[in-house]
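Support case: user asked for a sample of complex input and structure output to validate their parser. Sending the pair below.
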Amino acid sequence: MAAGQAPQNAGEYIAHHLTNLRVGEGFWTFHIDTILMGWLTGLLGLGAFYLIARGATSGVPGRVQGFIELLVEFVDDTVKGVFPGDRKFLAPLALTIFVWVFMMNLMDLLPIDWVATLTGATGLHYWKAVPTTDLNTTFAMSLTIFLLTIFFSFKAKGAGGFTHELFTAPFGNNPLLWIPNLALNIIEHVAKPVSLAMRLFGNMYAGELIFMLLGIMGTLAALSFGGLLAGAAAGVLYWAWAVFHILIILLQAFIFMVLSCVYIAMAHEHH
Amino acid sequence: MNINATLFVQALSFAALIWFTVRFVWPMITDAMDERTKRIADGLAAAEAGKQSLERSARQVDEAIAQARSRAAEIVAQAEKRAGQMIEEAKTSAKTEGERLVAGARAEIEQEAARAREALRSQVAALAVAGAEQILKREVDAKAHADLIAAVQKQL
């Protein structure tokens, strides 16, 4: 439970945990928690990479450097698998996505009530620790990828080639087919960022929600003996879900990375 | 579920992180890895070169040993041949020396014998004269009969 105003029932509890710390009005609202946690996780993840990379030796690598190199090689191989061209930009992009999304997802494993208690103690009533449970984050990333896709399409095919492709692929170059082609391409181009963002958001949001429900179950422990049993069960389940969640956060980070690379690789392809 | 300006901030954060990784993090790590790859490759090449040069020197050593061995065998053969020659020479010179000595001795013996014969001859002549003196009971004039005596001596 958050310190200060303790929510009275389950609905309030969940609503409380799902509310961002806001500044601003209407569209010009900023989710301070999302932004700060995004910076913090990015700084932690890639900052650690930077510090280790700065001390990287071409001689015998230490364990930490070995781990970093393992990750880098893994990302590089994955990108190599989907994109045969020059990886000077795409591979570090993939690494950025993987590390950042993973670090943001990792915040999900912090017990939500501990975070709430901690931030509540500093006077911040609302604090969502996981930036990827905020659609703004996932859409910010997927739209950035979308823009990169468009950019690389233009770069690889030129404005003419890209426009030509919009009207002639996938059905063929026939004036009658121009409109269906365009419609399908628009749907395809829109579906990519939307699905990319919604997949990550949905997974993390649902995971967060299950942690909350188990947290509510845990609060029953204070009420009665039966409640105590339920609380103990909740503790076990919370732990089990957290273990399973390790897989999910890794997997979602990986999926986001691979799909981003696939989309950008597709932008290079000529039809 | 509300999209708002946070999106722009997050997109900028994302872009900044991408830039940071592309510009600094990734090259630093891959440079170190590439450098290591190069060093390992160089090390392997050097090891290979070392192995080859070792083989080369081993071959050279073998050749030198073989050469030395055949040269030694040659020298031994020459020495043996020379020794044989010397023995032969010594044998021949000893033989000729022996022959020479034998011939010398033989010549000396013949000389001795001739001298003895000469002496005998003169003595026999003297004896014959003495015998003839006895027989004739008178003195033979040695001077008068010197021609006769010399003729007798020649006949002996």
